[in-house]
């Protein structure tokens, strides 16, 4: 059964019969299934929390945040830069729930590590989203055009995709990172997006190849609908599930890609920072000052994990073939 | 039709040689169904399968789907029983239950007695021993029912080897005989072919060969011709009757095509919303239906006899199996329905002698008119 | 089939050629190759700059430079880096270490991932399935460099410290036993009672095993010994027989057990030959093993001859691997002393200047490969697990699987013969994609573990805006990816007859 765009009109025929079939629109069903996916819901809440924390605490793009310190000011080291965050309540023998002066500790020149980590999270999230959007845009266009028109245009586009796929993503991304690392998160994200679209374009092309043979496309062609309209109004809405899921998972892997690049010294450059760069800088501090290693690592994992869960929830929601039926 | 006019001598000879009557083409090039039900050996009185009050439910997120609600029937040796109904009426699910092929989450109750043994209480191992050996199945879509990565020969031989230890060569020889029997030319070389090298009709023939390769007592054919070209359908049905005769099996024929039932089944069971609503010998049921749903079905098929008159379709759609209407499940679509129908679900009652049962409060109103499809008159007819 | 491969080869060649052009141009454009010299304050600064401009042909347009590089490549030269060193010898050292790492990680990920994925799909919605799914998501979300640093800290440094006195504290044994019980319990299908029994049995077995290992200080001088080899191999023989033929007939079982017996005998008789073999000899032994096992299967198989041969060959190879590992473990103590009690290495691909026999040198590479491949494997492992699970779930719902059940085949045959092979088909396409990802991961992993591998060559070249080493890296990895794609394609065609014929 195809998820036709036109199928989103509620089927009132059965209601008028007074029968108990509740008609739901495509969108309603997707939403319902998504919100039933507990991991996805948890991922969404967690990810929302991280975004709000990262962008509101130290401020973004000139807007000041509620956290008093920033990620550039050095200061005197208190207590060798140990974290002051305490999560163990007093009745369990801890010092009670409080943030303290430097909840995540300080780095070796006394910069507040909470502020640094938040800045890193901001950068990583920004880059990941830009990569996701750019790659999805180009991947969809290339895949759709190649899949719909076939012939020479498809051959050219697909060979281009083949060429890009032969190059490991990290390799081409490293070259791009070397080029654009100094230009800030947005530009780096844009250029990374320009080299990571081929995976999605293959997927979209596959969907188009099968959908273009379907009767409703045949019908649209028969009444003389122009190709652009068929692509965007008839076929694309049916592939939206594949695209959204793939874009979400693409964002998750972009988080990891960016942090790997920064770790190798080919991404965001100091004094600005990203989560990967923080880990790279303090990898040798593992033994003496493990918090410098743990905090950015935890944030990468939490961000990537929550986006992955959201992606999984979306996949289940759009593709009900594996609907859970329990005995 | 239950007492055949043409007595046939049981065939003698080697158990593994079957003589194949040629398919006859008439002058117009159309397939002439050479073999009819009257020409095959009649059923005996021995009951081989009895399904008693079978219910099947599937728990889902939206609620419990009550796919089959109390189906009972029996099958005699060599008998052909047709089960008709719309999709979702429970006809396929009830036969999958007989095969023991329902998904794990299905809740099955009731009894399925094969020669007196309850299959639902058997050990899985014993049940597996019956499956494919005593009860075989032909599925609806031959395009997907054969494994694309194994050769036809392998898949046929495997069916033998699952139940009998023998060298592979012997099993392949048996497979070749079966391909001959179902009329696949060059059977020897076709053993090495893959399913995608076969046409739809050929694949269904191969499926039939696979079903009869162990000389089963029962063949369950689940809409065996629905996925095929019209021209091939008749050939396949004829082939089914022919191999049934060759291996002495009974057939449970599931279909929504009343024409097929009329030509091929000794008895017919009509199902609606998971329940049997009418059962009896084919001719009486078709000539004097006692349930408006059966009458409606008969009124909605074109035939040569009533050409010129309008078809009389049943309005509406079958009910959801999760949330059934109270009373008779057919009442929302039934022209005879009254308050009684909407509150109490009718039981199967014997309406005529000779084992004709129907589940309707108003079967006598159908009996009172000459053409029971008249209740399904369309508006234009009424106005005219 | 040959036409199919040839066609693919030609296309792949041109694709690779185009990719080299893109990489070359991007690398050349990625920065200023004279950056370090511009800040140079030495008196001969201008001379140095002129020298480098000349060597790197910085005065000619990039496409011409590319053609020059390509021309040299055709003559078999990889060019020089910006300091004038020939790239080829640099590559030579790096090549084998990196390819070893990548291949080990890929093969392990494929085998383990597919097995876990299939078991997980057959036990859908069980505790095992949920745990595997959750673990896979964690793996997808772990930055590889982070996990590598963690492994280095906890698996190498602290494990080596522990090896000095390898006793396991009772609490740890308790935790391990609990874990073992949970795995057993989660893998068992059935009602609560059966699962509880499985949990208890699993916990008891694991607890006893680790207590024994601890008390005997097994980790200080590990090894299996003949009785254990025979026991494990016999268990494997039964397992392989059940999978390939079932136990209805005795023939295949006898053949497989025969393979166990021959293996056990061989391990004793061949002792002197195995003292310091070469890889070629090991390969020879493997071939002889296969030949003997085919014979056993043929002779004892009876009417299930084919299945008997499968079972006995698998058992034979498994037993051989067991003996191999046992030999390696026996060399552990002497090796450990040779490297001053730090057998799990954190730096490099081999211990510098290490000399030892066959077993010790292999143990040395294994000790160096262990952690990088563990770090590298996680993501691929998760991918293969998820993919094969999804693929198996889809296949198990296909009509032909229902047909197979309708024939009365035992569930084992339904899974092994009908579902497994169809389920593998989409996994082969994943192999091609995943391999490129592993190479990217290897670059990062090598960086953490300080391997002087290809990744290092690439990163250094890229940072210095020096195309020659970058291109040398890409020629090797790109070719490896093309070859791997080819293998995946051939495998695909082998598994799916529909592709083979078109």
UniProtKB/TrEMBL annotation, chain A:
Signal peptide: none
Main location: membrane
InterPro entries per UniProt: BP-dependent_transpt_permease, MetI-like, MetI-like_sf, OppC_N
Compartments where located: Cell membrane
GO cellular component: a single term: plasma membrane
Superkingdom, taxonomy of origin: Bacteria
Keyword Transport belongs to the record: yes
GO-annotated biological processes: transmembrane transport
Record-annotated ABC transmembrane type-1 domain positions: 121-311
Membrane topology label: Multi-pass membrane protein
Pfam families noted in UniProt: BPD_transp_1, OppC_N
Keywords for this protein: Cell membrane, Membrane, Transmembrane, Transmembrane helix, Transport
Residue spans crossing the bilayer: 39-63, 125-149, 156-177, 183-204, 235-257, 292-311
Family indicated by similarity: Belongs to the binding-protein-dependent transport system permease family.
PANTHER family: D,D-DIPEPTIDE TRANSPORT SYSTEM PERMEASE PROTEIN DDPC-RELATED, OLIGOPEPTIDE TRANSPORT SYSTEM PERMEASE PROTEIN APPC
Name by which UniProt lists this protein: Peptide/nickel transport system permease protein
UniProtKB/TrEMBL annotation, chain B:
Positions of the ABC transporter domain: 49-298
SUPFAM superfamilies: P-loop containing nucleoside triphosphate hydrolases (SSF52540)
Keywords, comma-separated and alphabetical: ATP-binding, Cell membrane, Membrane, Nucleotide-binding, Transport
Gene3D superfamilies: P-loop containing nucleotide triphosphate hydrolases
Keyword set includes Nucleotide-binding: yes
Keyword Membrane: yes
SMART domains the record matches: AAA
Superkingdom per UniProt: Bacteria
Family, similarity comment: Belongs to the ABC transporter superfamily.
UniProt protein name: Peptide/nickel transport system ATP-binding protein
Annotated source species: Streptosporangium subroseum
From TrEMBL, chain C:
Keywords: Cell membrane, Membrane, Transmembrane, Transmembrane helix, Transport
PROSITE patterns per record: ABC_TM1
InterPro entries: MetI-like, MetI-like_sf
Residue ranges of the TM segments: 9-29, 99-119, 131-151, 171-189, 196-220, 226-246, 253-270, 282-301, 308-325, 369-387, 427-450, 470-495
Domain of life: Bacteria
All residue ranges annotated as the ABC transmembrane type-1 domain in the record: 95-492
A single cellular component GO annotation: plasma membrane
UniProt-annotated location(s): Cell membrane
Protein's UniProt keywords contain Nucleotidyltransferase: no
GO terms classed as biological process: transmembrane transport
Main subcellular location: membrane
Record's bilayer topology term: Multi-pass membrane protein
PANTHER family: ABC TRANSPORTER PERMEASE PROTEIN (PTHR43163:SF9), DIPEPTIDE TRANSPORT SYSTEM PERMEASE PROTEIN DPPB-RELATED (PTHR43163)
Entry similarity comment: Belongs to the binding-protein-dependent transport system permease family.
Identification of the protein by name: Peptide/nickel transport system permease protein
